[in-house]
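Input record (one chain):
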Amino acid sequence: MTDSLATGVARTDRGRGAGRRYERVGPGGDPVATGGSADPPGEDERPGAGAGVVLDCGWGRLVFGQTFADQSAVADVLRSEAAGARDICIYLRDPHVLVSRLPDELFIDPSLTYRLPLGGDRRGPRPGSGTTEEAGTAETPAPLDGRNELPGVRIRRLRDAADADAVNRIYAANGMVTAPVDVLVDNAATDRFLHLVAEATTGEIVGTITGIDHVAVFDDPEQGASLWCLTVDFNQAPPGTGQALITELAARLVARGRAYVDLSVLAENNGAIRLYERLGFYRTATLCVKRKNPINERLFLPAMPAGYDRLNPYAKIVADEAMRRGIRVEVTDPEWGELRLTSGGRTILTRESLSELTSAVAMSRCDDKRVTRRILTEAGLSVPRGRTATGDAADAEFLAEVGQLVVKPARGEQGNGITVGVRTPQALAAAVELAARFCPDVLLEELCTGEDLRVVMIDHEVVAAAVRRPASITGDGVHDIAELIERQSRRRAAATGGESRIPLDDMTRDVVAEAGYELTDVLPEGQVLAVRRTANLHTGGTIHDVTGELHPVIAEACVAASRAIDIPVTGLDLLVPAPERPEHVFIEANERPGLANHEPQPTAERFVDLLFPGTRAPQRLWTPAGAAPSGT
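The corresponding structure, as predicted from the sequence alone:
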């Protein structure tokens, strides 16, 4: 029941016995193990009211408040929260009383609790449910009592470590708390958890949801259940994946005879709330209690730093990581993404991932792509053939020599003014004119085929590698191409805080036309169509983590490139046939790479490690493939 877009960090210290998943809490607040990692407690072990039930979910513990006779025992349990975890107490009677007694330690979570009755009439609350507002609506709730199949997606139970790793990647990509793989796998094997995943026809996991059966946990007399960690991969999941997960979970709980399922959602998450209400969920008066810790700071502090809410995602991820470590954050220019970070006697100014540690010389080497090419060539690294446009016959001669060109401003960013695939002198003249609008100096480069690879280097180490792919749409046999582009653009904007959108411009029309379509054509169901030539994230491109697949030759070349430029933080762009193969060419270097685009790799953690080595983040309990342990 963590919000589908909740924020958090990986757990770093479990603080409990290995394999323990289910606990009773004695009168003094001490946990008493009642079950192993895979087997639920026996009938004679399941506690009733007053015994105190705590369930380990991996990202933190669920504390079932209605099973505690003494509020002081609840406080003791929350005090024992493991470092880096997010424990939640729910269904506690009079939670405000407990918080009023311990305001320096605990707080009421600013979330809303919603309930979906299972089976029978779901138009309104059951008598005695304690709702805070009228739940009935004029619109009939969407059918959830039966399975609602989504083409191209299969909903099934989480089975193994590979599934759990994929789930953690989705959690991390959406800023949620990750969990140890063994905990997720062990929990999924019990009847207490209904941990479901959405699997695409490609075999990729594109969504996840966790249900908890309260009857299996503590013989709940109300026959209830709860829903947690609903989220999807916004790059891969088709529309409707979240609803399909809720539908399947509800159907399985109905088959078990459960009466309702609850969930909690952050009060400002209006999009999720609209979905839940449309599906028949209604508000209840249930509140959650959490312990004040660095993960939860934004939920209980009276205010974030002035200007924080105006930061873009690339500056916000740095601010969040700094605040988690107790580093003072001052937003000096929110529109510019500029921060002043202070810890002890050390103060550093940053603009997103650019800091005072990057020299003006290193920055200028990245700023002019011609200089970057020269430095990398002198270091013995591979770059495409290229020249500066001169506007005479030599440009056309170079085009004839290499066949196809990429034309781009010598200085610029975010893909502005770039034309890919120039084949004729007429197209070359138009491309040079476009590029010159952004910079008077224009670079002509041989077009090299391959995947667009971004490698983030911090302190001359590979921290993340990702393949960037141009914006694409998938046909549904109903909507025309223009409508599909607009829908995908809205999804990309929602997933990136408005940073990524697909423009309906001449380039998009040209790419669609080259594929043999017009914007008014209906794309056949299941057919994928690329609608942009470049993989720039600001024009709707998507990014896919390949850090664990990166060939050692490419990694070594990236280290050599960052050292040649002499820059502490950079995003290196390469073209490769595949990230697991050694062949590559360098395209450019970015002095201010976007750290927010590389989850689940710990880019922000390593950046703040570089700025303030004494505050190094503890090693994650779950580490994505290819990530170097903290402190190495």
